[in-house]
Design brief:
The structure is a homodimer of 299-residue chains. Chain A has a 6-stranded mixed β-sheet, sandwiched between helices. By secondary structure, chain A is of the alpha/beta class. The first copy, chain A, is globular and about 60 Å long. Chain A is built from 13 helices and 10 strands. The first copy, chain A, has one domain: 3-Layer(aba) Sandwich (Rossmann fold), CATH 3.40.50.620. In chain A, helix 1 packs across helix 9 and helix 7 crosses helix 11. Chains A and B meet through helix 7, helix 10 and helix 11 of A and helix 7, helix 10 and helix 11 of B.
Amino acid sequence: MRCKRCTEPAIIEIRRHRTSFCSECFLHHCREQVRRAIDKHRMIAPDERVLVAISGGKDSLALWDILLDLDYEADGVYLGLGIDDYSKRSQSFAERYADTRGAKLHIVDIPAEHGFGIPDAARATKRVPCSACGLSKRHLLNRAAIDGGYDVLATGHNLDDEAAVLFGNVLQWHVDYLARQRPMLPATDGFARRVKPLIRMGEREMAAYCVVKRIDYIVEECPMAAGNRHLRYKEVLNQIEERTPGAKATFYLQFLNEMLPHLDQVAAEERSMVGACSRCGAPSSQEICAFCKLVEKVG
Amino acid sequence: MRCKRCTEPAIIEIRRHRTSFCSECFLHHCREQVRRAIDKHRMIAPDERVLVAISGGKDSLALWDILLDLDYEADGVYLGLGIDDYSKRSQSFAERYADTRGAKLHIVDIPAEHGFGIPDAARATKRVPCSACGLSKRHLLNRAAIDGGYDVLATGHNLDDEAAVLFGNVLQWHVDYLARQRPMLPATDGFARRVKPLIRMGEREMAAYCVVKRIDYIVEECPMAAGNRHLRYKEVLNQIEERTPGAKATFYLQFLNEMLPHLDQVAAEERSMVGACSRCGAPSSQEICAFCKLVEKVG
């Protein structure tokens, strides 16, 4: 197998692009895919300050790496979720990467600042852990971006993640969730702009990127996520992809191109309903935001 | 296991409804589900004349049976597709049912009237057989309904069929197909109203209905459909249903409730582009309709 770009021996085949690459050309390909996503969806202007949400996993560290290589001014923020040993080890991968690159990493520790971890929150609210975790992340990452004066908050959601979320939303036709599932959500009162520059990259490519670039990351999935819905949806989509390479990218990217324009009005109506939480001032469509309610319940 | 309606021993469990029925109550349930679909989507008014598309399979014969039991004036039309022995046997099942019920069955034989069968059409056009077949059916069934002065054409598409088609359309976000995937398409110039009264009934329930009512039907799938996309999508959906009973009905019925209203304009634009075929006068968005093009190619 030869690199389709330079004819050197290839190290990876990407079936949905009907191509294969050597290490150097693969890194070039990754950067180009990210650049293309950023340009097409107007995610980040050249002089803007970016805050990258870092979990210590392959996607977020690779995203940070690519953004730095593309010369963006990109700092990281690590959110300590209080999931015992898993959180500690994740944090050390994040810190090690920041040290190596000489990049700035903010640490927000939920147990230290709010007195509880995600396992406590899940127990207290009887929510599935991923739900309590997701809402905490949305709230605290946004606050970190706003407080730090960043123009934009970037997360490492890749094509597989976004396709799985889309699949879940489509199975139940949550039209308001569909309308909001955009790779770039513009800044609104109290919300930093949120972007997902990895939407054109598969999970497998992100792992390969880290291997080639020698970025150490936490390989295990979060222990609390085991068996969650999205992991099942990923399996279903992988089956379809296996038979029809490119099916997953078509499913997600055609959604952006073909369906989302019909849901612009739904999204605008949603946005118009957002006020401010009476407790913390964060944007919320209810009097008290979901995070403050969570804090109250756990406490 | 007991019937949830009358406590007699049950013969079928329907997991997505969390219920089970004896024979009599199951038949009542089937009629009620069809009545509900007809009412909700204004498919058929009490005094209208219905033409039911009959393939000789379980769905179309059960549909005909239920419509007759619900006192609709319903005739059948059988389309001979020229698929050798399979077509002959299918036709005999259709005729036998019509005889038993003393119901009127029209026969339209494609090879006799147009000089070719579906296998020839597929070869000549290099289309997959299901594509040539589908377009021929749409054209000829509509013509039979219009020529016979029927108010409405009913087809036996069940929940599994519609969910699989929806799944295929969603995987590629064919927004115009999505906008058109309605259980009731109103009559327009040259098109009879088209309805799908079995959208609330699963494949398995339709087979059970025929067993209970002692309706003989052709059990084999069409030999030309083997391995087609929709059969694969049905498998995927069955996997999801297995884990989450009701997922399939939610997927399809929520699409009708939640998504379709956002696509009304797309559907209206589509309709406004339909003119008449210059050759046969049938409605078509192109100068010559797809069926006349097919006839030309095969001939």
